[in-house]
Design a protein that fits this description.
six-stranded parallel beta sheet; single chain; 11 helices; Urease, subunit C, domain 1; binds zinc ion; eight-stranded mixed beta sheet; 23 strands; 398 residues
Length: 398
């Protein structure tokens, strides 16, 4: 239980200045100016610092030297603790390209660690990312035997729905994907399109099957220019244009300032708006680590990439290779580069991703009755303290 006064609360639609905020072991109790200070202990004057809802990361692979594809509970906890230091209180561990056995173990661990005390961010469930990529769109991911949808094999992976599997990424142009998407939707999964060179009509069909989200807008996807390499005219639209066009589709950006320029972030924000655009880290294990070479994915069987300053690059430096910064950096960067109001930028890192996962009744904003997941930010939006389920980071849960 705790209580702050003189806090600036970042609510979904505004910043409420000089307000009080109280929470108990699990939930936020109130967020207003009521005069019951003396009844509550301990109390603390926040001197106008911000309280933001804890961030929710839909797309994250690793941090602090560990990758979820290392496939140990300790690696999971290391990544969760790392991202919690950056304000993330909930996340969906995201796999990279691997073998079927690796995917199954990954999903088992997501199920085992879901909603447990990791000492950091809460595991919401796994984002199965990699098996169904369109191979030419794999980007920096390891070369592997990509799966084409097959009912028996798909149903084996989808059987983890409800026990560790939350999100599935597909490439709509791959034959057999319609059945896969419909089967995943029947099991309640969020289905996203990613690492795909689909055409606009293929994306439109995929929306009809139930695809509702698109991974890292502008990255590893088809657009007019790429499709023109196969057909000069008429020029055609691809995944990028379909994502901007279809209101049914939410999407996400890696707002580290290195993947996308300010104008692309502004375009995404203007067209999709703060309720259809989430900030993600897409971070690999080099978060909070020095520059150098790191395995993206499993140690030994993933892909070697390099951390170079605030971004990951391929070893030959010809391409990007995932993020290396926490979501707090993305929040500050998006705010600085787009000029979007702070409460909307925070919403894109909290309530919007929570809603995309269908978990906004429980997490994603500072509201009485929601989990006490919140972040204290200074005026420069640096993380000062993080609370997961009412417990400050660094203190063992009771
Ligand atoms: Zn990716």
């Amino acid at each position: 239980m705790g209580y702050f006064f003189n806090a600036n609360l970042i609510l979904p639609d505004r910043i409420d200045e000089g307000t009080q905020f109280a929470w108990n072991d699990r939930e936020i109790v109130f967020t207003d100016r009521r005069k019951i200070r003396r009844l509550l202990k301990p109390e603390e004057n926040l001197h106008g610092k911000y309280i933001a809802p804890g961030f929710v990361d839909l797309h994250v692979h690793g941090g602090d030297g560990a990758d979820f594809m290392d496939l140990t509970a300790e690696a999971f906890r290391t990544v969760c603790r790392c991202h919690a230091r950056h304000g993330t209180t909930s996340l969906t561990p995201t796999s990279t390209v691997g073998t079927r056995d690796q995917y199954r173990r990954f999903l088992e661990l997501c199920g085992e660690l879901r909603n447990t005390d990791t000492g950091g961010a809460r595991v919401l469930g796994g984002h199965l990312y990699g098996p169904y990529f369109h191979p030419p769109a794999k980007g920096c991911h390891p070369n592997a035997d990509f799966l084409t949808p097959q009912p028996e094999q798909d149903d084996d992976l989808l059987s983890f729905a409800g026990r560790g599997l939350t999100t599935l990424t597909v490439a709509p142009e791959t034959p057999g994907t319609e059945r896969l998407v419909r089967a995943a939707r029947d099991r309640g999964l969020l289905v996203t399109a990613g690492h795909t060179f689909a055409t606009f009509p293929q994306m439109e069909a995929a929306v009809g099957w139930g695809v509702r989200h698109v991974d890292h807008l502008f990255c590893a996807m088809s657009d007019r220019a790429r499709l023109r390499q196969q057909q000069a005219y008429p020029m055609r639209a691809g995944v990028m244009e379909a994502t901007l066009y279809h209101d049914e589709l939410t999407t996400e950006v890696i707002a580290d300032g290195w993947h996308l320029s300010a104008e692309l972030l502004k375009l995404a924000y203007k067209v999709k708006g703060p309720d259809r655009l989430a900030l993600v880290s897409d971070a690999m294990r080099a978060v909070d680590m020095p520059d150098g070479e790191y395995w993206f994915g499993a140690t030994g069987s993933g892909e070697l990439v390099r951390r170079k300053g605030e971004v990951g690059v391929t070893l030959d430096a010809s391409g990007l290779a995932s993020g290396v910064m926490g979501l707090d950096h993305g929040l500050r960067t998006f705010h600085r580069l787009t000029g979007a109001p702070l409460h909307e930028v925070v919403r894109m890192a909290s309530l919007t991703p929570a809603r995309i996962l269908g978990l906004d009744a429980d997490i994603g904003s500072l509201e009485a009755g929601k989990r006490a997941d919140f972040v204290i930010l200074d005026e420069q939006l640096n993380v000062e303290q993080v609370y997961v389920g009412g417990v400050p980071l660094g203190e063992p849960a009771a």
